């Protein structure tokens, strides 16, 4: 994976807890679009699917998630109500720690992502933004360990420190 990596942090906002310690990571041209699923599997991530990103704020309180853009372009909101709008294109990879909010704002007709999760987290809960659940969700999020399976060249290990 190349060296252009963006780290994005976000405080709880609009019913989305976000991760209290670890940033979302965006790796530009992180993998060949046609090889996203194979790249994730080769690094131990499973529960792979290919589709899109939901058009509502959501997060996974007990799972980290990697999203690789396999086709097209999109504007993805990261973080919740005070979103950071992020333009992504085929080949880009987003690594989201547990609890980090995301939502599709706009997309080309051919937009698709491949998603995957660390071992033991392959069937994530999809939690919608909800102010009443943030405190409970933060307890779950803090309990999710850093993945033991890397995505290459220390991307997670160097940025998600204990």
From TrEMBL:
InterPro entries: Cupin_1 (IPR006045), RmlC-like_jellyroll (IPR014710), RmlC_Cupin_sf (IPR011051), UCP019307_cupin (IPR014500), YjiB-like (IPR047121). It comes from the Bacteria. Residues 58-115 form the Cupin type-1 domain. It holds the Pfam family Cupin_1. This is Cupin. It comes from Histidinibacterium aquaticum.
